[in-house]
Give the backbone structure.
Amino acid sequence: MRYNHPIYNSPKRYWAIGVGAIASFSVQAMDANSVLPEELFFSDVPVVLSATRLKQPLPDSPASVTVIDRTMIEASGAIELADLLRLVPGFQVGYYTGSKFTVSSHGNADRFARDMQVLIDGRSIYDPAFGGVTWSDQELDIDDIQRIEVIRGPNAATHGSNSFAGVINIITQHPSEQPDIRVKTVFGDGGKKQVFNRFSGTEGNLAYRISLKYDENNGFDNRHDDSDTRWFGIRGDYQLNSRDALLMELGSSNGTREDGFPADAEQPFRATEDDHAFQQLRWTRSLAPGNEFSLQFYHNYQRVDDSFSDPNTFAPLDVSLGYGFKSQRYDVEFQHSYDFSPAQRLVWGLGARRDEAKGVWTFKHGDWMSRDQYRAFGNFEWRLHNNLLLNLGGMYEKFDQKDGLFSPMVALNLKLDEMNTLRLRGTSAYRMPTFWEDFSDQSVVLTGAMTPLLQVYKTNVNLLPEYIESFELGYLGNFQETGLTLDMKLFHEEIKDMIAEVKDLAAPGQPFTYINSGSLNINGFEIGLRWDPSPRSMLHVGYSLTNTYGDQIKKYPPTLPEHYRMLDRRVPPLTVSILGSHQFDNGIKLSSAYYYMDDISWAGDGDDVDINRRWDIKISKAFELQRAEGEVSLIFQNIGPDNHFQDFHTENVWGDRIFLEASLNWH
């Protein structure tokens, strides 16, 4: 049940608290100018790449950025990659099944989370057919991640359409920094069995990594959602000479995913076969200090084999339905960064992309449908004064059969001193419809003959992209004398031309279709806190408070009040994450994470789920052998007296789980 927080019913009080908190820290920072110790000005400041494609210290970033580094990754006790993103203020993670995850910022998502851009080493893993990311199919293990940079807010000016709610940029470790051989195994409750092997090395100017993994689990205790996944990945970094470097990556995965519900004609018990593959090549040349360009090409491929017959619902007819499809993306991009002076820097680039999809079940297309995109982007950083930094950015994109889109961004960063920064930012972004939204054509058919009997989905209009405007006032304090970093953000977002799934009352059989309908306003206040009181201790806190309102059409054409859906429950009013860790003198590491999310109404085929609370603990101990080193960890997930909650579906009920993780490294 949703709490009736007074702040939700008082927008003036709500904004006053956010502005007051930021103003309070800003005034304290200005008052402290004269007493800052000199050594603080020479301390290391985290550098991020994702906000503008320029390497920028966090105080210079024109966007709110959360960095999940190796310390946080290891302390989290996360088994699934998606669970790491629970640490980001304002983010929600939902489990559609035990192996299918959705990750959203400020809610308003179904199991595909179409508004989030996700990159791995500069390669977008967004699926153009249905949208979102198939997290379990990615050829990536948590152990290979160096850090994750998360842009909290629209960033299409830098990363284009679908960077609508935010950007998740996953940066992996360089092979030369990794042990020669690593073996890791995880097993525990829920039928979890995982084996990961990695081989890294160098041969002359070539550094390489070969990874293999097998992963299986039984999903939720009360669901038909077992899964298994096998994958391999290869990365090579070749230094051609002092100026030129090549990055080469490829990978492939396949697995079986169980899905469905008892006595559900549209989602019955069944098993799907999923295949995934990618190839990536990037050439980087350094022309001079501050003058560098890169040329990158990648290809992603995905196949989902998902169809089933039903001899009962339309008896005596034997009918079939399916959700299977294939999709792929080809992308080439040129990028050039140039420093005009210490006060002025520019990054710009050009790119082209072809997205393709096909599916006899979902599109009635046995041949590839294609959509081409061309883009030009740039970001100009101009230090107007020692304490004032201007960032101007934008991207122009042209898609087939759509009008051209321009996504601008402007931000001013005012440094109160070297450790305290105020940021004012405005931007807009677009979300391009997926192939499914634009071209869905799904029917119940006669088994074998494929003769359509009942239309289930059919899109009949040329959809407009969704559009968002975002404004934020941010504060970043870096109190290095105490090891504390504080990031606060007050924001307003308005989404227009929303793509709505509606029941078409005017069509025979009343199929579902997609139209542009509705708007959503989100006002919010976020806090990210990181405290490192010593090299062996760490505390991270994420906090998000939102007020949301909006509506859209649910049944078309609307004639009654119940033909509209209210959107205020699409975003949980309050989300909290707390992660702490400490290493004792005897070498034992203890960490604990707590997550809280208010009740939420997941879109699409999700459900209304109640408040979620989750408490995890990880205990680990490192050890050394004659020729190797290792670590053993005991991981407790969702423990405590109030440890049963629903996740995405009311049928998805979490209980407590225990895992044993062991690893060995040979150098």
